[in-house]
Amino acid sequence: MKLVYSHQNPLMVHNIANVIENQGISCQVRNEMIISVMGEGAGFDAWPEIWVKDEFVQVAVEIVNAALRQAKHNTNWYCDACGELNESTFEVCWSCHSEGEP
Ligand SMILES: [Zn+2]
Fold it and tell me: What is the pLDDT of residue 38?
C-alpha cells in the first residue's frame, strides 16, 4: 500500500477517494478516526490519508491530479494580477482580463 493523497479537510479526502473508487480502484482512507477524536488543532500527522495498492499507485496519482484540477476549476479564485475575486466559471479575470492560472 502507498499513500497517494492527504488533506486537512476530511470531506476533500472523501471526495477524492470516491473519484478513485469510481475508476475501479479500491482505496483505503486512514486517520479518519483520529480527526474526529482530536478535532481541531490536530497536527499534520492526523490528516486523513488515501492509500492504494502498490500496483495502482501510478494511475491513482493521475486520477487524484485530474480530480484536483477539476476541483480547482470549480472553485472561486482570486486574480493574481489585481486581487479581485472571480467566479469559477470565469476563465479570465472579469476586472483586468488577466488569466488566473499561468
Ligand atoms: Zn484581475
Answer: 52
